[in-house]
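Reading a protein record of the kind used here takes little practice once its layout is understood. The fold follows as a row of integers, each naming the local backbone shape at the matching residue. With these conventions in mind, the following record can be read line by line:

_____
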Amino acid sequence: MHGLMNRAIQCFVRDTYGGEVWEQVVRRAGLGFSDFAAMLTYDDPLTDAVLDAICACLSKPRATVLEDIGTYLVSDPQIQAPRRLLRFAGISYEDFLQSLDDLPGRAQLAVSDLVLPRLELRVLPAGRYILVVDSGGGTPAGFGHVMVGILRAMADDYGALVMLDHRGTRQGREEIEITLVEAAFAEGRAFDLGARMS
């Protein structure tokens, strides 16, 4: 697993629950170090051990933790890069959904050795979609739940009202049902396409 993803998990725990909880996770997972290096690669079982430790320390199921991580990646004001990458898709939530197939490629333009699961969006009638998340062994099982958190946070970001349902895994591929109830339900968060230099 790419260190950038492990570092995001670490930052999620520290920022949301505090450094003490992260140290508990470090001990329970038997890491032997406290900080992930963003540009290194770690064995997948290590990431699984960290996620198991987080679930144990927080007494939460893995699906909930993964969804919370996805929400954190988009909504935390301290980290803007994932949100910017996602918002480049267009001016509406529908644009965002239609661009999901290209997300792994766009992520690799930013970080060449970052491997995200393959995403496939299927368009159904009446504002319904199915997002297929195919990890192909490149990420820990359950990445679809991270996508549920991202989809929910991005709906808030665009001001859209959506219903999301993780439908489980079929033949190694996770399926998320997305129902776009109202595209302009509320005012979205401000977004400036040009990066500001401080």
